[in-house]
Design brief:
Helices cover 69% and strands 2% of the residues. Helix 4 packs across helix 13 and helix 6 runs antiparallel to helix 12. The chain is mainly alpha-helical.
């Protein structure tokens, strides 16, 4: 072992020299409203599509109860992250929390789970964007493009935007998030006069069940992954810690304001999109549920199509912001050596992780293509729904591990500065972890999506094998690693 290599437990750290970190710099820009927009924008596409795929297997009531349960989980988690993030203000986010609480292996398995979530979530969204764009282009212009062309166009635009610079990234995030929320407000106000319980409860019940729970309580369980789509990715905010001017003050406010906004939006959308023409059953089977609702409110024709075109802003907001998230996730894991080092190089003048951004887009695009062209494996199920369940698989594993990290950090490092303390304490984290674990089990309840989940599970295992064989010998004292090693030594003393 060379002089610049230090063995620490089962891993080895290398001293790469100052030039290594000079090639991996970031810029500080974000304030509280940029962080709020990053969190809300990342999630807002869940109000435009994705959630509705749960209606055929749970009905309105099953999805409503699942959404209440999942909202409790995200509130507990948001407050826990609001405590951890300013206490550990590093770009690593979930990986950083897991690393400090549970060591290098804990950090890696947490970061890898979040990596799967953030690489796959933009793939879900770009499928939704392509579906909306196909409907709009046919309605307005009478032509369409193959789905993969729409995917390529939108990946190219928004990866490029994220590479251009953090200032432009956050400015566009604030702008597009307000546009998306504006569209939802127009929809909510317009939908109220059209709401009908008969339409919300029009899924035919199975024998012995009601129209509210047409598939019984089993319909609640299978809807947990779809309810997550109303909130998934709010937890990405800690990834912006090294690009925030004041993460100690702004990160907690961004997280708490963000989850409040999303809870209100989720329940308004669920009621008003499912409870107007053409009814919940048809809404659950359509890849463009908000487009259906806008046609009900404004009529068939150019007006509804133009509104739907503007509604794509909601999907774009999430697509753009989660590209930001996977870029920072890959960057932080690579900078610390868990992923290959070359993935963390940043652009010389723009200081954005361009290699990580491009790599994540390539993986997401390839996964979309595989699922679209593998009907023999996946069957005739929506590509977006398969990807959604795959992304949720990674997400709920990361959630469980982050909430476990919260409890460990409270007990193992009680004296580290905590600029914000969670309102719900350990109880909030434990409840969130239990709901996330239950959702992980529920993912396997629907046989239509199991193949995709098995595929992402193989991805997870392959990543762990990579780290065991190679990655753990190539670690670097990044900010996350230095913080964790220092406090581990202090705790031992």
């Amino acid at each position: 072992m060379s002089d610049d290599t230090k063995k620490v437990g089962s891993v080895a750290y290398h001293n790469p020299g100052s030039e290594y970190f000079e090639k991996r710099g970031l810029k500080r820009y974000a304030g509280v409203w940029s962080l709020w927009a990053l969190g809300v924008g990342a999630v807002i596409s869940g109000d435009f599509f994705g959630w509705n795929f749960g209606i055929p297997s749970g009905g309105f009531g099953g999805l409503l109860i699942a959404t209440i349960i999942i909202a409790v989980m995200y509130i507990g988690m948001a407050y826990s992250l609001a405590e951890m993030s300013p206490a550990l203000p590093h770009t690593g986010g979930a990986y950083s929390f897991g690393r400090t609480a549970m060591g290098p292996w804990g950090g890696f398995v947490t970061g890898l789970a979040e990596n799967m979530e953030y690489v796959l979530t933009p793939a879900v969204i770009v499928v939704g964007i392509a579906s909306y764009m196909s409907s709009i282009s046919m309605s307005l212009f009478g032509f369409d493009l193959p789905p993969w062309v729409w995917w390529a166009i939108f990946y190219a635009i928004f990866v490029g935007l994220n590479i251009w610079g953090v200032e432009l990234t956050f400015r566009f995030t604030v702008f597009i998030t307000f546009i998306a929320l504006g569209i939802l407000v127009v929809f909510w106000i317009g939908a109220i006069p059209h709401f009908s319980w008969d339409l919300a409860l029009d899924v035919p019940p199975t024998e012995g069940n009601s129209t509210f729970l047409p598939f019984g309580w089993a319909g609640v369980a299978v809807n947990l992954p779809f309810a997550i789509w109303f909130f998934l990715a709010i937890e990405q905010l800690p990834l912006a810690a090294e690009e925030s001017h004041s993460p100690e003050k702004d990160m907690p406010r961004g997280l708490i304001f963000g989850i409040g906004t999303l809870v209100v939006a989720a329940f308004l959308t669920l009621f008003l999109n499912a409870g107007i023409e053409p009814g919940a059953a048809k809404v659950g089977a359509d890849p463009n549920p908000l487009f259906l609702a806008l046609q009900t409110i404004f009529g068939q024709g150019v007006g509804a199509s133009l509104l739907a075109l503007v509604a794509v802003a909601g999907l774009v907001a999430s697509f753009h912001t989660i590209i930001y998230a996977y870029g920072r996730n890959i960057y932080s894991l690579s900078r610390a050596g868990y992923f290959p080092h070359w993935l963390s190089v940043t652009h010389g003048s723009r200081k954005t992780p361009h290699v990580a951004l491009i790599a994540g887009a390539v993986v997401g695009f390839i996964v979309c293509l595989i699922i679209q062209n593998s009907e023999a494996i996946f069957g005739k199920v929506p590509v977006g729904a398969v990807l959604l369940n795959m992304a949720v698989f990674g997400a709920v594993i990361a959630y469980v591990l982050q909430m476990v990290s919260f409890v460990i950090l409270r007990r193992k490092l009680p004296h580290i500065p905590r600029p914000y303390v969670s309102l719900f304490g350990e109880a909030g984290a434990i409840v969130a972890a239990l709901i996330a674990a239950g959702t992980l089990i529920a993912l396997f309840a629907n046989p239509d999506y199991r193949v995709g989940i098995y595929g992402v599970a193989i991805w997870y295992v392959a990543g762990i094998v990579y780290f065991a064989v190679y990655g753990r010998h190539k670690l670097v004292y990044s900010p996350e690693e230095e913080f964790a090693v220092k406090h581990a030594m202090n705790a031992a003393d």
